[in-house]
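Final report, Chapter 2: Outcomes

The project's central promise was a pipeline that accepts a single protein chain and returns its three-dimensional structure in a standardized token representation, suitable for archiving and comparison. That pipeline is now operational. To close this chapter, we reproduce one record exactly as it appears in the project archive, with the input sequence first and the structure output second.
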Amino acid sequence: MLVVTIIIAAVVTGFSGGLIGKVDEKAPTLTVDVKIINMGSWTGSGFFATVTSVSGPISTRDIKIVTSWTASRSSANAFQSISGGNTTRPGMTNVNALGDPTIPVSLVAPFGTGPGINGSATIGSLDTDAATFSSLWQQFGNYSLMSGTTLTAQPCGAADLETIGGSSADQGYGVRTMYQYAPEGATYLDPASAVLGPHWESLKAGDRVNVKVIYTPTGSVIFQKDIPVTEG
């Protein structure tokens, strides 16, 4: 009987220790410089976040990004309120259109560049193409956050030289026009829509987007801020 009691006590102690270990696990600290831009065209618009400090490398496998916002837009000579946002999870495909909406892709945004990425390339520069964005290591869930890491999610066509400027109605996206890449009703999710949610182009300068980063092993919110939308 004494032996049985000792064994049970040991099992209970070990189980409790495991629980305490989970409770005591500390979440990392993180600060990020986030910019959300709607230029009214593909080029220059999107979600941009640069890590400015972090307590230690954080694998994007262990975080999710949650965005939420409310904006107003005109409809039939009246204003209506529209809400949006999205939750980005590691390894879960959220992009099916990139430089050309007619060419299907299967990617996970936001894409990473800089420290913490194996095989990093500069996203958004004029010499990039769809192949740059498809790098396995640059997809969310496959890289780590370190000081200097940049996360990027730009609209479909942002790296297409033919759309630079987006001054004409058929090349725009956002403030000045509502081009949706879906002339026949197809549903396209580009990187910006994947992170900020469909209809993010309704956001105008002065609107705010709540950006939250959750460390999933503990459920802790390690970054949260209301980000003002700008036009450049």
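Archive annotation: The mean pLDDT is 76.
This record, like all others produced under the grant, will remain available to the consortium after the project formally closes.
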